[in-house]
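Hi L., both proteins are below.
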Amino acid sequence: MAHVISEDCIACGTCIDECPEGAISEGDIYIIDPTICTDCGTCASVCPTEAISQG
């Protein structure tokens, strides 16, 4: 199951740089494309607001 980003996202960009699949898109709140996400968890481990979790 893909990871998801909650409203706690501050759009800092840290997760985008870490995603090996390029599954994260920018916005007011970033979005993870579940069809691309491999559930590696790298994004969640670097999120400063802990806004990313398993969906």
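That was the first. Here is the second:
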Amino acid sequence: MGYVDLEIPEELLPQIMEMLSVAKDGGKIKKGVNETTKSIEKRSAQLVVIAGDVTPEEVVIHIPMLCKENNIPYAFLPTKKELGQAVGIEVGTSSVAVENPGNASEKLQDIIKKLPKPEKK
């Protein structure tokens, strides 16, 4: 997993999943690499979550770099399946962008504060 350059604290994983689950109901979430990429480029993403088991990794390798360029926080969940479940879809998904957290905005801010800051290369 060469593109996973941030160590996400273990205790944040369930918080991220819970926030995504709440945001999918009352907020606005973009699912999949193309939708996520567009959301980052439009700077409408507040947080991007990427699955750590995407193969080939080239599919998502541009996302952390785009996030850094646009100053958008990002995190990883271990698997596409977990990420898909968190946003209420039957299949796995490679990435999601939270554009509006709905009722999860406090949770979102809390997660963003606890995320490691990406190094600008």
